[in-house]
Amino acid sequence: MAIDTPRPPKISLGELAQGYLGDIGPEEFLEGMKFTDLNLAEVDATQSTFLDCRWSNVNLGDADAPINLTGAKISGTTISDGRADTWTMSRGNLLHTEIDGTRIGAGVVYDSVWEKVLFTNCRISYLNLRGSKLTDVEFRDCKIDEIDLDRAKVSRVAFPGSSVGVFQCEGAILGNVDIRGLQPHKISGVHSLRGATIDDTQLMLFADLFARELGISVE
């Protein structure tokens, strides 16, 4: 059966104006700007909009002082070589966005909407996407310790060249989710994997797990 692969983001950045720390604030609308070498720890950017922007070498905050992007919208934007002990963007919108070479400790991004998002060469310790809606999202050549998709609606999501340690999908609705090649040491919510695609090797690796979940004894 053919698998619908994630559709790539469409990004077209023209000439960008230089953005500064003072430009960022709650409910601000920022379009066509570039933000470089900034420390955004403790910055309040709730309900803000970043349209057709570029972020380069930006610190999104320390564990106890992250930027607050709650309810923010980021669209048509690239983020490269960023870092965040804690990335706080719950109930936000991430649309037509590419994130490259970025390290994230804890991604607090539950109840969000992500559409046409590409992560490349990123290192993520924990990504909390509970209750989110993901469409056309790809994690390419990434290392993710744990991803939490509990109660999420997930369509056309793939992990080519990536590794995931813990894969949680309790109560999730999956469609065209390609997890071939992943070898998580823990899967939570096996019964919610309907709509996912695995490979032959994974079927053997997960056989005991599937049997336990279905109440099947193997002797």
How would you characterize the overall build of this protein?
It comes from Brevibacterium spongiae. InterPro entries: 5peptide_repeat. This is Pentapeptide repeat-containing protein. The chain has 219 residues and is mainly beta. The chain has one domain (25-214): Pectate Lyase C-like (3 Solenoid). It has two helices and 20 strands. The chain is elongated, with a radius of gyration of 18 Å.
> Which whole number gives the mean pLDDT?
92
Q: Proportion of β residues?
A: 35-45%
Secondary-structure element string:
EEEEEEEEEEEEEEEEEEEEHH
Which residue ranges are poorly predicted, with pLDDT under 50 across at least 5 consecutive positions? none
| Number of DSSP helical runs | 2
Overall geometric form: elongated
CATH class group:
Mainly Beta
Query: Helical proportion?
Result: under 10%
Protein name: Pentapeptide repeat-containing protein
InterPro entries: 5peptide_repeat (IPR001646)
What key phrases describe this protein's structure?
12-stranded parallel sheet; 6-stranded parallel sheet; mainly beta; Pectate Lyase C-like; 219 residues
Q: Secondary-structure blueprint of this entry?
A:
Elements: E1 17-18, E2 29-31, E3 33-36, E4 49-51, E5 54-56, E6 61-62, E7 65-66, E8 73-80, E9 83-88, E10 93-100, E11 103-108, E12 113-120, E13 123-128, E14 133-140, E15 143-148, E16 153-158, E17 163-168, E18 173-178, E19 186-188, E20 196-197, H1 200-205, H2 207-214
Parallel strand pairs: 1-3, 2-4, 3-5, 4-8, 5-8, 8-10, 9-11, 10-12, 11-13, 12-14, 13-15, 14-16, 15-17, 16-18, 17-19, 18-20
Antiparallel strand pairs: 6-7
